[in-house]
Amino acid sequence: MNAIQQHMLDAYRASQRGEPAPPLPGRHDWQAVREFADRREFTALLAGDRPLGRFRRALARLTR
Q1: CA-to-CA distance for 39 and 18, rounded, in angstroms?
Q2: What is the DSSP string of 11-38?
Q3: What is the distance of C-alpha 14 from the center of its chain?
Q4: Residue 11 CB partners (closer than 8 Å, separation 6+)
Q5: Pairing with 64, which of 5, 8, 31, 54 sits 20 to 30 Å away (CA)?
Q6: Residues with Cβ within 8 Å of residue 21, at least 6 apart in sequence
Q7: Tell me: the pLDDT tens digits for 33-63?
């Protein structure tokens, strides 16, 4: 069974139970990748490394 078939089955079960349908497969993939990168940057920051990426931009905005 692939992801689309599993989603169709889950959506059917949710409709039978009166629950909201689950999100489409792959809908939150970029958010998960972004959260992983943020976590890696945050742990590096706590370890004393220079801030990178979004953390560096956020710190630059706060210090202006």
Answers
A1: 36
A2: HHHHHHHTPPPPPPTTTTHHHHHHHHHH
A3: 23
A4: 21, 22
A5: 31
A6: 10, 11, 14, 15
A7: 888 888 888 888 888 887 677 777 777 888 8
